[in-house]
Amino acid sequence: MKLDVCGGCNAKIGAGDLTGILKSLQIHKRDDVVIGFDGNEDAAIVKITDDIGVVTSVDFFPPMVEDPYLFGKIAAANALSDLYAMGAEPISAMNLVCFPEGEDLGILEEILRGGAEVCKEAECTLTGGHSIHDAKIKYGLSVLGSVNLNRFYRNNTPESGDVLILTKPLGVSLLMSGYSIGEVNQEDYEKAVASMVRLNKEPFDVLKNYDVHALTDITGFSLLGHLSEMMEEYSAVLNSKDIKLLSGAKKAAADFLFTAGGQRNRRAYSKNVNFEVNDFAMEEVLFDPQTSGGLLISVSAKDADELLAKLVEKNIDASKIGTVVDKREYKIYVR
């Protein structure tokens, strides 16, 4: 299966390009749509009863790995992550497929098998889908979940004093880019793939028992991009030494194995960030687009240590990466 130079969430259209277009649209407002795209949320919520809402999202992209089965698993895990980020339990999913006419259908079968296995792990029923012929392979899911309208998460409601916890290490796009040209070793590549195929169901099942104020998943707009969206009314102070990175990711950045998505993120979000450390390679990792990245949790300081301990008990590679403070000149300070 042929890789795309902008595979995975690295293929996202830049945030800066999207913002102006979306603001120009005339959107009909319905009272039963609780959450739309006004706040750059991870998914939409539609009210069904006073207590129950349905959560919908969609994600698809070109392959970032050559193995079609693994590609299917990564794409499915990435799509389902938006439901967990909103506090929803997955219910159903539909396949979205673009596939070249005349291509080996065995490749498509393996992609769909990978996606189906992840949906089964998430206890989510595949209910169909839509497929078209296209010049390049693309795959993903349209997903639907249910949520308690009295207890769902938003991506922009942290509180001052919160602790920020990230549940996966960073650097997947840098590693995928480097591996595609033979500059990243097999072991580091396999660790990155293992991170991407892992569902965010496990950290979600843990964090919902604690006083979490804001939640999002880290995907194509990078840690600094998604954290910028979270810090609408506050600022964040990150401790760069506490942020876990995938093995080889910082070396890939130091070797200038940049991605187009990473440079788009830098252009869009660098104005929000004050780097108090002189570490260009680390900057690149922090702007790196993540595919099926971890959850970023803004949790009350009183619960942070216990939540982190419970995550680690589940073999989740989580870490405390910083704190939320009252609003300052910049949205994010990296120390």
Count every beta strand, where a strand is a DSSP E run of 2 or more residues. 13
Q: In this structure, how is the largest beta sheet organized?
A: 7 strands, mixed
Helix content: 25-40%
What gross morphology would you assign? globular
CATH class of the largest domain: Alpha Beta
Number of helical stretches of at least 4 residues: 11
Q: What's the N-to-C terminus distance?
A: 41 Å
Proportion in β-strands: 15-25%
Low-confidence stretches: none
In CATH terms, the superfamily of the largest domain is PurM-like C-terminal domain
Helix/strand/pairing class, anyone?
Answer: alpha+beta
Which fold does the CATH topology of the largest domain refer to? Phosphoribosyl-aminoimidazole Synthetase, Chain A, domain 2
Reading the helices and strands in chain order gives HEEEHEHEEEHHHEHEHHEHEHEE
Protein name: Selenophosphate synthase
Keywords: ATP-binding, Kinase, Nucleotide-binding, Selenium, Transferase
Domain PurM-like N-terminal: 41-147
GO molecular function: ATP binding; selenide, water dikinase activity
